[in-house]
């Protein structure tokens, strides 16, 4: 346990860059087990609590949150979701996945609400979060006392040491740059305009519009807010899209005979999501362990990112608790081996979803062939219960 001296701050288990789902779930579980740690977050609290991203939580994630006393908000305000629909020129495929595969369902709870709950709970458990504090360097991960050097909002340099460090600073953080990992990556060449509309969902279910002009997605979030996606040109400037253009393009790609029209409303947030995937292996270096998007960037096509962050954080928490409280590093040493297969499975399914949802990119000579495959995948989902079962298990599983 380090003592405070000069710019050093006291720290038991270690410091963690990142107050996203990964860092906050980990911090909460450790704190409840009496293992103290410090969360360093480069953004301000308000910004972190308002950042809208994920919404679909798999049962494994919900079970973890419940088991560790972190689910009061989602149990009170989240809602269950068990249907998704594909709309294409070939017709509609309506899958009630509570009746397929293992019969599992999602809980829809906006990520910013979950992050807000996790911060409040962590602080009430006596935890410490330094907001507006950006980690600049990580040192000594192969020694006994790894350190994090950060700069706070007033420009002061802070140094934190601990027994272990967890890199929970997302896909663009610095933790991953410290791990000499083999990086397997794929740029899918696809960009989405990601939109949040102040408008009720047009249907209870997620709708995937598989259209020759590009993918469109309808994802319910709350009774008043809906997330939409529109596949767009990578060079698009989101601000150049008028609200009228957005709604007419969404309607065109999501329209199907006999279905209610989209419910329009102001677009309250817009941004670009470039579909890129990455898997790091290994996911630790010495006493630094990576979790969440720091380990794997995954496209939102199958809603896996936040779920991998939560399940990875729980796995790492158990390893750290054993190591700090009992001096037993067995579980920590298994962390990479246990977590990477889940990541690969989620990546494989997300990639399959990308191929299912998007027309072939560019003008390659095999595009016509790829279009045929896309139609075959949709057909299989429409007619084969075996395909539907496998889809359901992957769609809701981690
Ligand atoms: C539009 C969109 C929709 C999505 N939808 C879904 C969905 O439905 N389901 C799902 O499971 N996933 C979804 N995802 C993915 C999901 O949001 C991420 O996988 C999830 O946020 C990962 O959590 P994390 O804690 O690993 O990283 P993050 O949430 O990115 O948190 C990392 C934190 O680290 C901080 N940080 C970074 N660098 C530093 C530094 N140097 N010093 C200090 N702090 C730092 C960042 O500010 C951030 O707060 C979506 C993503 C997007 C963009």
Kindly describe this structure.
The chain folds into two domains: 8-81 and 105-184 and 276-351, FAD/NAD(P)-binding domain, CATH 3.50.50.60; 187-275 and 365-396, D-Amino Acid Oxidase, Chain A, domain 2 (2-Layer Sandwich), CATH 3.30.9.10. It is 36% helix and 27% strand. It contains eleven helices and 21 strands. The chain has helices spanning 21-32, 45-50, 59-67, 72-77, 111-124, 175-178, 243-254, 305-326, 330-357, 367-383, 385-396, and strands at 8-9, 14-17, 37-40, 56-57, 79-81, 83-88, 91-96, 106-108, 128-130, 134-139, 147-151, 157-161, 165-167, 182-197, 206-209, 216-220, 226-232, 267-281, 284-285, 288-290, 296-297. The strands form five sheets. An eight-stranded mixed sheet has the order 7-6-15-16-17-14-18-21. The protein is globular and about 60 Å long. Mean pLDDT is 93; it is low at 1-12.
Summarize this, please?
By secondary structure, this protein is of the alpha+beta class. Helices cover 36% and strands 27% of the residues.
Overall domain count? 2
The biggest beta sheet, please? 8 strands, mixed
How many DSSP-defined strands?
A: 21
Query: Which hetero ligands occur in this complex?
Result: flavin-adenine dinucleotide
Question: Helix content range of the residues, please?
Answer: 25-40%
Number of distinct helices: 11
Q: In the CATH hierarchy, what is the class of the largest domain?
A: Alpha Beta
Beta-sheet strand percentage?
25-35%
- How would you name the CATH homologous superfamily of the largest domain? FAD/NAD(P)-binding domain
Termini, distance in Å?
A: 35 Å
CATH architectural category of the largest domain: 3-Layer(bba) Sandwich
Average of pLDDT: 93
**What form results from the Cα inertia axes?**
globular
- Order of neighbouring strands in the sheet with most strands: 7-6-15-16-17-14-18-21
Query: Uncertain segments of ≥5 residues (pLDDT<50)?
Result: 1-12
Query: From the helix content, strand content and strand pairing, which structural class follows?
Result: alpha+beta
Under CATH, the topology of the largest domain is which? FAD/NAD(P)-binding domain
Q: Rg to the nearest angstrom?
A: 22 Å
């Amino acid at each position: 346990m380090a003592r405070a001296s000069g710019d050093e701050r006291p720290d038991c288990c270690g410091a963690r860059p990142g107050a996203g789902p990964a860092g906050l779930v980990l911090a909460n579980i450790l704190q409840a087990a009496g293992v103290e740690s410090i969360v360093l977050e480069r953004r301000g609290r308000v910004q972190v609590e308002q950042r809208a991203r994920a919404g679909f939580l798999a049962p494994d994630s919900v079970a973890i949150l419940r088991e560790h006393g972190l689910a009061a908000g989602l149990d009170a305000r989240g809602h269950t979701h068990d249907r998704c629909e594909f709309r294409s020129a070939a017709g509609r495929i309506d899958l009630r996945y509570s009746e397929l595969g293992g019969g599992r369902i999602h809980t829809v709870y906006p990520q910013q609400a979950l992050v807000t709950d996790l911060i409040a709970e962590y602080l009430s458990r006596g935890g410490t979060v330094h907001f507006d504090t950006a980690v600049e360097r990580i040192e000594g991960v192969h020694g006994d006392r790894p350190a994090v050097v950060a700069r706070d909002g007033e420009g002061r340099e802070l140094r934190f040491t601990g027994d272990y460090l967890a890199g929970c600073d997302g896909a663009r953080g610095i933790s991953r740059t410290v791990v000499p990992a083999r990086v397997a990556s794929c740029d899918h060449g696809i960009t989405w305009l990601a939109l949040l509309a102040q408008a009720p969902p047009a249907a209870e279910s997620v709708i995937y519009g598989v259209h020759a002009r590009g993918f469109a997605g309808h994802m319910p979030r709350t009774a008043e807010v809906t997330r939409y996606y529109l596949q767009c040109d990578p060079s698009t400037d989101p601000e150049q899209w008028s609200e009228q253009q957005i709604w007419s393009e969404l309607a065109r790609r999501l329209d199907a005979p006999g279905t209610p029209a989209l419910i329009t409303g102001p677009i309250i947030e817009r941004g670009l999501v470039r579909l890129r995937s990455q898997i790091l292996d290994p996911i630790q270096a010495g006493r630094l362990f990576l979790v969440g998007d720091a380990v794997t960037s995954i496209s939102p096509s199958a809603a896996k990112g936040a779920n991998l962050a939560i399940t990875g954080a729980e796995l790492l928490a158990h390893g750290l608790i054993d190591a700090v409280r009992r001096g037993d590093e067995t579980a920590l040493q298994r962390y990479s081996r246990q977590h990477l297969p889940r990541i690969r499975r989620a990546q494989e399914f997300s990639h399959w979803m990308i191929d299912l949802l998007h027309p072939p990119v560019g003008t390659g000579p095999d595009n016509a062939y790829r279009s045929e495959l896309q139609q075959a995948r949709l057909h299989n989902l429409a007619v084969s219960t075996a395909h539907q079962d496998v889809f359901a298990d992957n769609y809701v599983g981690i």
